[in-house]
Automatic annotation (TrEMBL):
Protein name: Glutamine-dependent NAD(+) synthetase
Function text: Catalyzes the ATP-dependent amidation of deamido-NAD to form NAD. Uses L-glutamine as a nitrogen source.
Enzyme class: ligase
Organism the protein comes from: Marinobacter segnicrescens
List of residues binding deamido-NAD(+): 384, 413, 523
GO cellular component, one term: cytoplasm
InterPro entries, A to Z: C-N_Hydrolase, C-N_Hydrolase_sf, Gln-dep_NAD_synthase, NAD/GMP_synthase, NAD_synthase, Rossmann-like_a/b/a_fold
Length: 554
């Protein structure tokens, strides 16, 4: 880490400083491409905003999270080449970028300040997180020193993401004389995350009497979605600038720096509803997964139910109707209502829509299985066969036309195993994987406020997989209003079965749900990834052994 003479910034002559927050979307692993994005953004910030300093998100050179790409032998070479290209780009404005930097044989998650073609300062993140979706200690050593630099006569401190959530780094920077703190972030979205960030930043700014520029990554990366929401707080803890969530762009902030650095306030974006916030996260997650992985289009099974209807709307909003193919695959148990509603959804959204009956295929399979199944009675085997035939059709369309199959299962179903391996779970991306069923209903009503694309009876009728006559989800599960509460306590908050019962839930319901969650880990391990929107989703967040002897209880 480096620090220039005069870093305490003892002079307090009033100065203006134009800072631009580069809330941008980077591609993991494309180090040279990401460097070009940085250069282009700095030049644009110079031209459009007369920028003195452009601040980028955490690890913007590699994208976040780079995971085991950080272990590749050529990492240091590629990072060095990217840093050299930034230094040789003849940029007028300075920039703070995030990059992995090796020093003394150890790799650090660093904030690097480049000014006039030179690396003026480097700060090493002091608290690499190792919880929930984070496993930075696998890759990064922890720094220990503050970094405060005299930039244009102003004492500016650097920190990275988790450092601001922990005691120490902000306080160190303030003690070293910082009047303005830059914090680089790759903070993934979950419900309520922005409110928690703002409460934290307000306290850190007020308690340490320094302005904070918090710049966050935006975009989708596998199951994670980064929502941006970059903010600026003044030294008294007042929110001066807030950037819209999920929007990529360059956002200028003017500071008047005397004894304190005072940001000039800007109008704030409207406060989004919970449903709008989640919906935008899902749309962004789908768009980036499809586009960054080079898929031309997506295909999904449209059943006439609410999950596939919502998935279809999200896909169209993410990619455009011309890149979405909906397929209805009816069977003898498919109701006329489902056929009508599926067609209405496809027409409302303007997508290609095909109907392929699975009846002939089902009959052929049953004929082939007639001898081994002789003397048995129909059960879930025959139900699962229907789902698997649909999976085969969708995967065939995927192979032939290069389309990504979107699955449509929600978090509630995935939790209790209410899904079929190699059937409705067959696909590449599950849009609703982390969306509880009760939230599916709320999102569907929200989407209809934009334009009416989901028929009202799809939202109001009892959910059914339609794999057997008169089948309803609640025949074998508690009502979703109860189920989702139990799942929240068990999956997201780690309550034991006894603790959930103590909250007032029926013991039989609790023990049944907990058992279903536990025994279906093997299914979830084989499920496609999907957008994470809660504090604890199935995937990186929750890593339980498939084979285990843990007993239900306290």
């Amino acid at each position: 880490m480096s620090q220039q003479p005069g870093a305490t910034g003892t002079g307090h002559t009033a100065r203006k400083l134009n800072v631009v927050m580069a809330q941008m979307d980077f591609l993991v692993g494309d180090i040279s491409g990401n460097a070009r994005l940085v250069i282009d953004a700095v030049r644009k910030a110079e031209q459009e905003h007369n920028a003195d300093l452009v601040v980028f998100p955490e690890l913007c050179l590699t994208g976040y999270p780079p995971e085991d790409l950080l272990l590749r032998p050529s990492l240091d070479l590629r990072v060095a080449e990217a840093l050299a290209s930034l230094q040789q780009a003849n940029l007028t404005a300075a920039c703070v970028i995030g990059a992995p930097i090796r020093q003394g044989g150890l790799l650090y998650n660093a904030a690097v300040l480049i000014d006039q073609g030179e690396v003026r300062a480097s700060y090493f993140k002091q608290f690499p997180p190792n919880y929930q979706v984070f496993d930075e200690k696998r890759y990064f050593a922890a720094g220990s020193e503050p970094c405060v630099i005299d930039f244009r006569g102003i004492a500016v401190g650097l920190t990275v993401c988790e450092d601001i959530w922990s005691d120490g780094p902000v306080e160190q920077a303030a003690a070293a004389g910082a009047r303005l703190l830059i914090n680089l972030n790759a903070s993934p979205y979950d419900i309520g995350k922005q409110a928690r960030r703002k409460a934290l930043l307000e306290g850190k700014a007020r308690d340490n009497e320094l302005a904070i520029v918090y710049v966050n990554l935006v975009g989708g990366q596998d199951e994670l979605v980064f929502d941006g929401g970059s903010v600026v707080y003044d030294h008294s803890g007042e929110l001066a600038v807030e950037v819209p969530q999920f929007d990529e762009g360059l956002y200028p902030v003017e500071f008047i720096c005397d004894h304190h650095c005072q940001p000039v306030s800007r109008p704030r974006p409207p406060e989004p509803s919970l449903e709008e916030n989640i919906y935008k996260a899902l749309v962004l997650g789908v768009r980036d997964y499809v586009n960054k992985n080079g898929f031309r289009s997506v295909v999904l099974g449209l059943s006439g139910g609410i999950d596939s209807a919502l998935t279809l709307a999200i896909a169209v909003d993410a990619l455009g109707a011309d890149r979405v193919h909906a397929v209805m695959m009816p069977f003898r148990y498919t109701s006329s209502m489902s056929l009508e509603d599926a067609e209405a959804e496809a027409k409302a959204l303007g997508v290609r829509y095909d109907v392929f009956s699975i009846e002939p295929m089902y009959d052929a399979f049953m004929a082939a299985l007639e001898k081994p199944f002789e003397g048995t009675t129909p059960d879930t085997t025959e139900e699962n066969l229907q789902a698997r035939l649909r999976g085969v059709l969708l995967m065939s369309l995927s192979n032939k036309f290069g389309s990504l199959v979107l699955t449509t299962g929600n978090k509630s179903e995935l939790a209790v195993g209410y899904s079929t391996l190699y059937g409705d779970m067959a696909g590449g991306f599950d849009v609703l994987k982390d969306v509880p069923k009760t939230v599916v209903f709320r999102l569907s009503r929200y989407r209809n406020t934009i334009s009416p694309v989901i028929p009202e009876r799809v939202i109001t009728r009892p959910p059914s997989a339609e794999l057997a006559p008169d089948q309803k989800d609640e025949d074998s599960l508690p009502g979703y209003d109860v189920l989702d509460q139990i799942l929240n306590l068990y999956v997201e908050r780690d309550f034991s079965a006894e603790a959930i019962v103590a909250e007032g839930f029926d013991r039989k319901d609790v023990e049944r749900v907990v058992r279903l969650v536990d025994i279906n880990e093997y299914k979830r391990r084989q499920a496609p990834i999907g957008v994470r929107i809660t504090e604890r989703g199935f995937g990186k967040d929750r890593r339980y052994p498939i084979t285990n002897g843990w007993k239900i209880g306290n």
